[in-house]
Structure formats: structure tokens, C-alpha cells
Write a structure and sequence with these properties.
heterodimer; A: 419 residues; alpha/beta; five-stranded parallel sheet; 30% helix; globular; B: 161 residues; 7 strands; 32% helix; 20% strand
């Protein structure tokens, strides 16, 4: 029986010639990740373990990104705990204010994630690195603690769903529309415990930033991981960003898939997920007249340079609607700087938006854009659960940067074609 | 090992944001988290829950964020077991790792209502609805997971090995 790409990576890291779906394995880890919310719990757990220290100071990444710059005293205490741990164990890849960015945009940019890696992170969107052909998955703090101490984690080898991508998308259709469309089709538990393996000649028409967005939201379909084949574009990205060697794995011709889905990019429309689940999708022509109060463009899903360029193209020479609050968050310091050099920040500010330092803040209702009862937000983030961005009676509509920017201008959910 | 108590019942896709909203994640103290457990889906939960009570839910319980604070809050609130049709995978791992017993059993999820008195035998996987006099066969834990739960979590289990 052939193996999927994910299964091959897991087999190699478990020292096995082959593995099959359902098998329990113990795999060596190339990177263990945590943030300012999950790491304090992991550090506390690790301190209870009979261990001398971390397994490898270069293979742990600690990123303070959720409630940073510290939103309150308790958050400051959490960050202090992570800072002291990083210092004590001489963690190489520790990112504090000034260096930090939103973890899943930051780590690939810093070259810490490459094809063929096995990565666990105490953050559910750790699946993002599948865009580069790595196996990466979210875990909790205790798994992070065990990973930091031992460099190993146990996994149940996942079965897989094959997603065949064909065609070329129209101008305003992006990775966000692809993944929202897919989640709308299979549901928020449609890929539960499984890999989503993307394949097909349409991938060549998706930028790396599109692919990061798609892999990022694999968890929103319940998937263990999402993974892309490594093509010339992915290799170019890794060579530009990383000095680490990478290994390319390809799925076997006879690999087994539990389900096969085809998405034709050419027919895809801008897609919006209605409250309160990412599976409640409608295409932009189906949304109707929905007025909004706030727009957020950013997050580990859509805070990359492509996303900001797209928003700026729409906002250039326009003003945001009267009474609309528009919050734009470049995901890393480098993206922030690049957006500044390209004049995107000027465009945003002249349009009436605000630009924030990198933070996860509003995405999870932490700070920087909390919603009051009855308010509606179009957001390029990844979850629209009840109360996710504030009051339980507020509403989040998930969309692409193009739809978010167009909606900021019109004051209601709109596609860029309507401007 | 057994769990026994009264049931709080929920539907599909109970996400970790409603189990413990992010506005409380500036704390990692189990007692403090427990005070806000289920707050955004059931504001009376914390007032009503008694030590030993169970949560029963439908599909994809614990979906969303990887926050371990979610099973920690549930356990610290006194819940002895969560039964669901299915669990989201990170929540499943986290629950086992911190020693919160959970069982997948679609029949039990369908056949148990709020307020029912339910007993779970972790060795056999048998779930008994004492109120309705019905029983369901859940998946018993593999031995290593039983040991993790008996040790009150993965860290203690590793330390004992």
C-alpha cells in the first residue's frame, strides 16, 4: 500500500520504512512552538517533570504574540514567565516585542520551518507550515512540555482527504476563498483526525501567501494537518528565507484517500462564512444587504504582504464608510516594514483605517477591536464562533482581504466588483 | 475507575472559545478558569455544576483553539467525564494529557438528556443512564491512556515511568 505525503514524513521521523493510517507512532520533532498563552502552562508542566532541561535550544520557538504588547498585568506576568524560561534555557528562537510577529507568519519568514519537517505547536493554527510541505499540527500545552523536554511526540497516523485544485482564479479570488469554500463543502468536522492533502495543477496559480492561508485553516475543517506538494515556488521561498536543508516528500501513486474533492479555481467566487461557524458559507452574490461596524484585516490567516497589497489596491484613493472602524494588522515586523516601504500604510491611514503593531489581539477577542452586543465585523481571521471577538451577541463574517477592504468602503458586506 | 453524576447536555461543535473565552486566558489558574467554564454557551453552568457531574454533547466537542485551558476549566469545575458523539482531535489529546476522562459514544450522546443520572465504567467502557435504565457501550480506553488518566495526566505518568 502506498503512503500519502504526510505518512511518509511521519514514517521517516519515526525511523520506520512505512506506516499506515491508524498506527500509533513516536516521532522525532524538528520544532516545538508555543506562544504567550500556551507556553506558561507548558513551562509549569515541564517544571514538574524530572528533566534536565530542553531537548535542543535551537529547536524550540517561543513567540509572544497573542496579548502583546502586554494588554494587562496578568498578560504581562505570563510574558515574563516565558521570557525568564527562554533566558534560563538559552532558547535561540525567542521572539519578544520588537522582533515578534504572529507566530505562523513569523516562523516561515524566519526560515524555521521547511519541507519534510515534523513540527508541533501549542496553537491550533500550527498546521500553516504544511504550505511548505512540512507535517505540522497543533497540540496543547502538555504535549508542548513533553516535546520541549524529549524532542518527541506520539501521533496516530492520519488517513487523508485529497483536494485536487485546478484552474486559475479570477483577480479578487484568493486562498481564503479556496479554504472557506472547502470548509463550506465538508463542514467544520469534515476532515476530523485526517490530513488534507492538496494537489493538482491549479496550485501553480496560488502564491505562497495563498497556500499559507489555505493550510492555516485546515484545522477549521477539523484536520490534523493540511499539506501542499513542494514545487519551484515553495523551493524558491525556502531558499530565500532559510539556511536549513529541506527534504521533499511526494505521495505515492497508490496512496489511499478516504475522499477526493476537486476545486476549480476558475469558477470560484469570493466566499464569506456567516456566524457562527466557518462552514456557514455563502458566495458574495448570495450575501444580501448586511451592514457592518468593523473590519479587521490581519491574523495568522491573512496578515501577509499579499493580503495587505490586495487591501491597499482597493482602499487606494477611497475612504472607509462613515462610522466604520477598520483595523489593519501586518503580521510581522518585516511585513510591516515592507508595507511601509511600498506605501501601503499611507494608503490605509489616508483611507481612514488604523494600522497596528503585529498581534493576534482581535482575532480571539483578546484586545484591539472587541465587539459590543449587536455589532458586526467582517474579518480576515479564521473563526467566527459565538463571542470569539467580543460580546456573545456580536457577529463575525469571515472573508478575504479583498472582500474585507471593499466592505470597509461600502459599510456593508461587498465584493470589490461593487465599488 | 468510575464516574457518576448528573448530566449537562450540549449540541454539535461546542468550541473551546465558549468553553473558556479568550478574555480569561490571561490566567492559567485552574480555579479561576473554572469560574468561567462554559460561560458563553451556558451562563448557569458554573452555578449549577456539582463535583462528579458529566457533560454530554453531540459532534466535534472542543473544536477550535488548542487552549489546554478548556479541559483544565472543565476538570477544575468538578466534571468527572465528558461523553460526546465525536471530539475535536486537539481537545481529545489535551483532555487525556491533563487526566480528564472522555469517551466517544454516539449512542450515549443521542440517548442521554440534560439532568439524567449517568455512570461510566472506564475499565469496560459501559455507560449507564440510571434515569432511563439504559446502557451504552463506549470505547474503553487503551491501557496506556487509562494509566495517564489514573496518574492525573501525562506529566505525572512520564515521571512515574
Amino acid at each position: 500500500m502506498g503512503m500519502t505525503m504526510t505518512q511518509k514524513i511521519l514514517a521517516a521521523h519515526a525511523g520506520l520504512d512505512s506506516v499506515c493510517a491508524g498506527q500509533l507512532i513516536e516521532a522525532d520533532l524538528d520544532l516545538v512552538l508555543g506562544n504567550d498563552i500556551t507556553s506558561p502552562v507548558a513551562i509549569h508542566e515541564m517544571e514538574k517533570m524530572n528533566t534536565d532541561g530542553v531537548f535542543h535550544k535551537d529547536k524550540i520557538a517561543l513567540v509572544l504574540d497573542h496579548f502583546v504588547p502586554n494588554k494587562d498585568i496578568k498578560s504581562a506576568e505570563h510574558c515574563k514567565c516565558v521570557r525568564e524560561f527562554a533566558c534560563k534555557h538559552e532558547i535561540t528562537n525567542y521572539f519578544d516585542v520588537g522582533k515578534m510577529g504572529i507566530e505562523h507568519a513569523l516562523l516561515p519568514e524566519q526560515g524555521l520551518t521547511v519541507a519534510g519537517d515534523v513540527i508541533i505547536g501549542a496553537d491550533s493554527h500550527t498546521c500553516t507550515y504544511g504550505a511548505l510541505g512540512a507535517f505540522s499540527t497543533g497540540v496543547g500545552s502538555t504535549d508542548m512540555a513533553a516535546g520541549m523536554a524529549t524532542g518527541k511526540a506520539w501521533f496516530k497516523v492520519p488517513a487523508a482527504i485529497k483536494v485536487n485544485i485546478t484552474g486559475k482564479p479570477s483577480k479578487w479570488v484568493s486562498g481564503k476563498d479556496v479554504i472557506l469554500h472547502l470548509i463550506g463543502q465538508i463542514g467544520v468536522d469534515g476532515a476530523l483526525y485526517k490530513s488534507l492533502e492538496f494537489t493538482g495543477d491549479g496550485i501553480a496559480n496560488l502564491s505562497m501567501d495563498d497556500r499559507f492561508t489555505i493550510a492555516n485553516m485546515a484545522i477549521e475543517a477539523g484536520a490534523k494537518n493540511g499539506i501542499f506538494p513542494v514545487d519551484a515556488l515553495a523551493e524558491e521561498y525556502m531558499k530565500e528565507h532559510s539556511k536549513r536543508p529541506y527534504e521533499i516528500y511526494e505521495s505515492d501513486e497508490d496512496a489511499e484517500y478516504e475522499q477526493e474533492i476537486t476545486i476549480d479555481l476558475a469558477t470560484l467566487k469570493s466566499t464569506v462564512a456567516f456566524p457562527h461557524l466557518p462552514e456557514n458559507t455563502k458566495t458574495i452574490d448570495e450575501v444580501g444587504d448586511i451592514s457592518i461596524d468593523q473590519v479587521v484585516i490581519g491574523s495568522c490567516t491573512n496578515g501577509r504582504i499579499d493580503d495587505l497589497r490586495c487591501a491597499a489596491e482597493i482602499l487606494k484613493g477611497r475612504k472607509v464608510a462613515e462610522g466604520m472602524r477598520v483595523i489593519i494588522i501586518p503580521a510581522t515586523q518585516n511585513i510591516y516594514l515592507q508595507a511601509m516601504e511600498e506605501g501601503l500604510l499611507k494608503t490605509f491611514i489616508e483611507a481612514g483605517a488604523i494600522v497596528s503593531t503585529p498581534t493576534c489581539g482581535p482575532c480571539l477577542g483578546g484586545y484591539m477591536g472587541i465587539l459590543a452586543a449587536g455589532e458586526r465585523c467582517v474579518s480576515t481571521t479564521n473563526r467566527n464562533f459565538v463571542g470569539r471577538m467580543g460580546h456573545i451577541d456580536s457577529e463575525i463574517y469571515l472573508a478575504s482581504p479583498a472582500v474585507a477592504a471593499a466592505s470597509a468602503v461600502t459599510g456593508k458586506i461587498s465584493g470589490p466588483e461593487e465599488l | 475507575m468510575k464516574a457518576c453524576g448528573s448530566v449537562f447536555k450540549y449540541g454539535d461543535n461546542v468550541d473551546t472559545d465558549v468553553i473558556i473565552p479568550a478574555r480569561y486566558l490571561n490566567s492559567s489558574d485552574p480555579k479561576e478558569l473554572a469560574e468561567h467554564c462554559m460561560e458563553d454557551i451556558d451562563k448557569d453552568f458554573v452555578k449549577k455544576v456539582k463535583k462528579g457531574d458529566l457533560i454530554v454533547a453531540d459532534k466535534n466537542f472542543g473544536c477550535g483553539s488548542s487552549r489546554e485551558h478548556a479541559p483544565i476549566a472543565i476538570k477544575a469545575a468538578g466534571v468527572s467525564c465528558v461523553i460526546a458523539d465525536t471530539f475535536a482531535r486537539i481537545f481529545y489529546r489535551n483532555a487525556i494529557n491533563i487526566g480528564l476522562p472522555i469517551i466517544e459514544c454516539p449512542d450515549a450522546a443521542a440517548g442521554i438528556e440534560a439532568g439524567d443520572e449517568v455512570e461510566v465504567d472506564f475499565d469496560t467502557g459501559i455507560i449507564t443512564n440510571k434515569t432511563k435504565n439504559t446502557t451504552f457501550q463506549g470505547q474503553p480506553f487503551p491501557e496506556f491512556m487509562q494509566k495517564i488518566i489514573a496518574s492525573e495526566g501525562l506529566v505525572n505518568y512520564i515521571n512515574q515511568k
